[in-house]
Amino acid sequence: MARHVRPSEYQPELPRDKLILNEAPADENIEVDVLIVGAGPAGLACAIELANLARKDNESGNGIGDLSIAVLEKAGAVGDHCLSGAVINPTAFTNLFPDLRVSDFPFRAPVKKESVHFLTKVGSVRMPTPPTMKNHGYQIASLCEVARWLASRAEEMGVDIFAGYPAEAMLVNGHTVRGVRTAPTGLDRDGKPMSNYTPGTDVVAKVTCLAEGTRGSLSQAYFAWQNVTTQNPQIYALGVKEIWETKKPLDAVIHTMGWPLPRTVFGGSFMYPLEDKLLAIGLVAGLDYEETGFDIFQRFQEMKTHSFFREYLDGGEMVEWGAKTIPEGGFYAIPDRRYGHGVIILGDAAGFVNVPALKGIHYAMQSGIYGARAVFEALKNGATSAPHLAPYDGLVNDSFIMDDLYRVRNMRSAFKGGFFAGGIKAAAMTLTGGKAFGKKIAMKPDAAVRKHIKPAEPFVPDNTLTFSKVDAVFKSGNATRDTVPSHLIVEKDVGEDVARMYQHMCPAGVYEVVEGRLQVNAPNCVDCKATDVIGPRWTVREGGSGPAYKRM
Amino acid sequence: MGGVLVVLEQREGSLKAVSCEALSVGRQLADQLGADVEALLIGPPGLDRGVGGQYGADRVSVVASDDLNLYQPAAYRDAVVDRVRAGEHQVVVLSATAMGKDLGPRIAARLRCALAVDVTSVEASNGIRVTRPVYSGKAVYSLSITGSPCVISVRPNAFPAVDRASDPKVEELEAPSTDARCRTVQVREPETARLDVSEAGTIVSGGRGLKEPANFKLLEDLADAIGRCAVGASRAVVDAGWRPHADQVGQTGKTVSPQLYIAVGISGAIQHLAGMRTSKVIVAINKDRDAPIFKIADYGIVGDLFEIVPRLTQEVKTLRGG
Amino acid sequence: MKIAVCVKRVPDTETRVRPGADGKSISEDGVKFVLNPYDEFAVEEALKLKEQAGAGEVVVVAMGTGASQETIRHALAMGADRGVLLETDARSLDPVSSATILADELRPGEFDLILFGKMAIDDYNHATGVVVAELLDVPCVSAIAHLVVADGKGKADREIEGGVEVVEFTLPAVLTADKGLNEPRYPALRGIMLAKKKPLEVKPVSLQDGAISVEGLSLPPERAEGRILGEGPDAVPVLIDALRNEAKVL
Predict the structure, then answer these.
(1) Distance, in angstroms, between C12 CA and closest chain B CA?
(2) CA distance C70 to chain B (A)
(3) How far apart are CA A48 and CA A31, in angstroms?
């Protein structure tokens, strides 16, 4: 009798032949100089820096001329799919806009007080804030609002942003990336064109910048196709988050560890004040958890019942919910090459996330800035082949991005052995600037980690403090057309144990077990990508599908 | 001279029930204005002229012609406009039915006067003041109307029909000619046997509690008994393929605002509630006393829907007289 | 075939509606604006008719603030040829007021057809298109769910209570579109790019308040606490009684 499930055994392969098309673009295509896939912080910073460089170049005479920059975004509007805590290090903003002051940027409030706590089922203990987690001088923000602000700046500078146009596949010629093909719209549940069917469009560019965010499909396909190696496989955590209007004000940035996560699960919670009585609260947990019944969504709901959080949440109202994965592999999981012929990869898609500090946004933006500089030089020289884009890697490698990530390179992996052992190792690493436990700790991909078959604890939401997945998805603003064709590639007949594991893995209730069989409610999907990591593979849907986050 | 003119609506020679409501509204307004109310009947010959006397009309004017059996926009418009010009009425009242929503604007355009559509309350004090729902029923406007005349269409089923005996003077008026450029040529049966949920005045919706698709027959029987009632479905059963997505209430299905919404075997997830919470009256039938739907329902019955629904169907049939 | 389509920029129906500071309109904080869904059916129908005729022009007209240019661009991205914005910051709930300005703009255009959505999802007036038709003195069929046009004549279906009215009319005419008329196309990326170059004329206009003034915008009254009438089938007669005599909906 099987007592474990190894997710990788049930995971279909990445559909590379659908993601990479070695064919000429359609006759009716759109041509631009630079195409950026993804209107998140990395993609938009890249667009803005490019526009900046072009403008300065033109002002100085003998300039590059009109540079057409297009950003494609799969969400119906910029910001709709952006989700983060977030506490942002403003350095990338000041690098991007040297003439602006911090008060000009779309931040909600500076971090004034902060504390870290260890929770048990019934109590909490304040811990000293680990040095890697000090946030003084940083800014609390909503990533949605950041993205919208950046998008407005970009559009003011002449960048074209097309929201509602997911890139479904890359168009390549030999080893050169030529552009992308967008997803069609108007297909019915069986994939047949309806009366308002519109086919996708081919967008051709001299350079394509992939800024798809966590677990981007085209990025994955590119690295696999080009056999780009990493020292460790990328690993992921899943974060679920809510925004609450509260009666009691919160005045500190709070992080907790311990309950409700078992010792074998890496992660913790955050609670940040966006406004006096508006807070963001969430729980993050590694997807290499060890039991099939572990349900991060459920743990988060239960977490809110702890008096530590109830103090703020009681009497309040949950106004938004969302979920997203975070690449946690750090330094050793970053691909060895993030550029190629006609292509560069930015941000979370390349894995630039500092897990111990919980920071990724300023790295994403900075990588966008470096990407823009490299691309601009290449365009000036009239050549966009790999050697001409290679300086992008050089800029990143020589910068604080890699410095920071190198210093904390083993911290996440240290927790592989459990919370306390990990805590000791992490402390040692911090004290020695990364020299202790400095050798790479090998990690397995999340899907290769066996999960012990164990049913979930029963959970009944009270609909005031805790909610069901169905209700949560509604609060994500998800208004996906119910008849879109399913975008998930599911292995046939996974069996009940695996089906239950999927059910608990997915925070949006996409997977249910009905009479022992897996039922897939694809329209529920909020594009968090957890499924792509340890479950059925994720692919793009028609533009505008998925959540519509307002202040996530 | 002056007063209120109420345009009554007929279908195949019989007066529609909503017209009695409109007439009662007209009577109340006339009382507030200290003026008369006149009922205007437009349609084929042979219409019952007596209804005016049941709801307090002071006068009844009749515009009858074979050409006017079906709603002919230009001719109906002219009948009303001519009458208002002759009678100098202050307020014209119609029901906000399909006809009323088409006719009202035409009258207001020709008279160059104010138009308030689908009002849920109206009173004559400091001018004419109305309230009307907007933004899919999520908000209510309070409006004041100046100028005379003004045209007001009242929401069907939002006002009571109040019996008031009167002895109106009946006058036959000449029927205007129809417009050759635009003619209603027929009224036929709708293609779908069932009403669409977004247009129905009553909806009976089913959820997972029905256990299997065939059991929706119970709801269809209830809908038939109630009459002009649509059958809706929760997202769960639409996802399971039991019902077509056109029937779905909530989530990306429809937001509905019927007079009466009966939720059967539906627990009340937020996404469903969001789709039907502006219904005037909500009834819930569910075996779980703690189901969230009971918090929003005006009336609830806890128990086995397989026993309750057939009983409800039976009682409604008896009520309807057959 | 020369067709005009009148469109309006409205708040998305999923919007959380809250009265604004003035108590007379909704707060626009966090509100997403879209092309009025019923107007989308009108735009789509106009495009189909032009495609069917093989030649012609589809002109999109909107009245509103400068932001309505986005709304016009959406229609241009779907395939309309040019746009006109009658710019004003004023809003009027008096359909005759708004329609007068639209009619004045449309009159000289000599359009074969002028299409509207049957109503806007904010004001729910169901009136503007019909009033415009009357002001222009052309035939009008409202809330159509099916349309056939040929040789200067048309036939349209409109849903009424318990039936479908079939109306025959001659061109030029005004039609207002209802759900079910068609499935609007999603603009292709190419369409969006081309739309940027299509002509969009902005004309300032002065919109009068008309004879209707807003005293207030409020949220509907909270539902009164409901009650469970009983258990099992024996509670049914109690329910029927309540529905008939208390709620008066049966």
Answers:
(1) 9
(2) 21
(3) 19
Residue B179 lies in a domain: no
Tell whether A314 is covered by a domain.
Answer: yes
Mutate to test the interface with C, among B20, B95, B112, B123 (most CBs of C within 10 A): B112
Tell me whether residues B292 and A463 touch, CB distance under 8 A: yes
- Do B208 and B310 share a domain, yes or no? yes
CB B233 within 8 A of CB B205: yes
Question: pLDDT confidence of A5, banded at 50, 70, 90?
Answer: very high
Longest dimension (CA), chain B: 63
Nearest one of A383, C220, C166, C107 to B72, comparing CA atoms: C166
Q: Which chains touch B (3 or more CB pairs under 8 A)?
A: A, C
Q: Which residue on chain A is closest to B252 by alpha carbon?
A: A479
Top residue of A482, A517, A526, A542 to mutate, by most chain B CBs within 10 Å, is A482
User: CA A378 to CA C203: how far, in whole Å?
Assistant: 45
30-89 of C, contacting B, C-beta below 8 A: none
DSSP 8-state class, residue A263: T
How many domains does the structure of chain B reveal?
2
- Give the closest residue to A551 by CA, choosing from A243, A225, A306: A243
Mean pLDDT of A286-315: 96
Q: Kindly state whether residues A111 and A127 are assigned to the same domain.
A: yes
Q: Is the dihedral of CA A55, A59, A61, A66 positive or negative?
A: positive
C30 reaches A (C-beta below 8 A)? yes
Contacts of A199 in chain C (CB under 8 A): 188
Domain containing residue A284? 107-140+234-330+449-538
Do A254 and A309 belong to one domain? yes
| Domain contains A2 | no
B13 and B134 belong to one structural domain: yes
Please give the residue range of the domain that contains residue B210.
Answer: 202-320
pTM recorded for the entire structure: 0.88
Q: Nearest by CB to B136, which of C121, C131, C248?
A: C121
Nearest-CB residue to B190 (from C163, C167, C235): C163
- In chain C, the domains with their CATH numbers are 2-204 (3.40.50.620)
For residue B190, is it within any domain?
A: no
Q: How far, in whole angstroms, is CA C127 from its chain's centroid?
A: 9
> Tens of pLDDT along B248-307?
887 655 667 788 999 999 988 877 887 888 788 999 999 999 888 998 899 999 999 999
Count: domains in chain A: 2
Half-sphere exposure of A179 (CA within 13 A, CB side): 24
State the chains in contact with A (3 or more Cβ–Cβ pairs under 8 Å): B, C
Contact yes or no for C164/C157 (Cβ under 8 A): yes
B78 with B221, same domain: the answer is: no
* Inter-chain CB proximity C186 and A186 less than 8 Å: yes
pLDDT in tens, A113-154: 999 999 999 999 998 888 778 898 899 999 999 999 999 999
